[in-house]
Design a protein that fits this description.
Elements (H helix, E strand, L loop, with lengths): L1 H34 L5 H14 L8 H14 L4 H6 L5 H10 L3 H13 L4 H9 L2 H7 L3 H6 L7
Helix pairs in contact: 1-3, 5-6, 5-7
């Protein structure tokens, strides 16, 4: 039983490290695209082609995803340093949902923090976004009642 727990813990640590490295790479690609505003559609298309040729077995370098990396960086770059560190603690898929289904930085930060705190899967995050949890939380007379309805991660 303890051997299985060790293996599971090691797998989780490996996944977390790889995910953080991937998000930092996407952050840096987004920063380069953002800081070089002169990079237009043709430059991004060429970059996408070049990355796909260099890394043929790696997904994630489509033209659309490169633009998403730019938006990822531009959305979160001005967050406070402690909050910005949270950006690297959830998956790219969760970021994609948050970036596409929220309206402002406060809402993005709310879902980012909740998805990490409650260890929401992509499916659960999508459900909470579609159920407008943020709006219900902000409009509630007693936000703790809304918070009590949030599914908790079982350890």
């Amino acid at each position: 039983d303890s051997v299985i727990k060790q293996i599971e813990m090691s797998k989780l640590q490996a996944y977390t490290a790889v995910n953080k490295a991937l998000l930092k790479a996407y952050w840096n690609i987004g920063r380069v695209l953002s800081e070089n505003a002169s990079y237009g559609k043709s430059v991004v298309e060429k970059l996408s082609r070049d990355l796909k040729l260099k890394y043929p077995d790696t997904r994630g370098y489509s033209i659309a995803n490169l633009w998403n990396m730019k938006r990822f960086y531009e959305t979160y770059r001005n967050l406070q340093p402690l909050v910005r560190e949270l950006v690297f603690k959830t998956s790219w898929t969760c970021h994609f949902l948050i970036l596409n289904k929220t309206q402002n930085i406060e809402e993005k930060e709310f879902y980012l923090k909740m998805s990490i705190k409650e260890r929401w899967s992509k499916r659960e995050l999508d459900r909470q976004l579609n159920a407008s949890l943020y709006e219900r939380y902000m409009l509630a007379d007693k936000p703790e009642k809304v918070a009590a309805l949030i599914p908790r991660h079982k350890i």
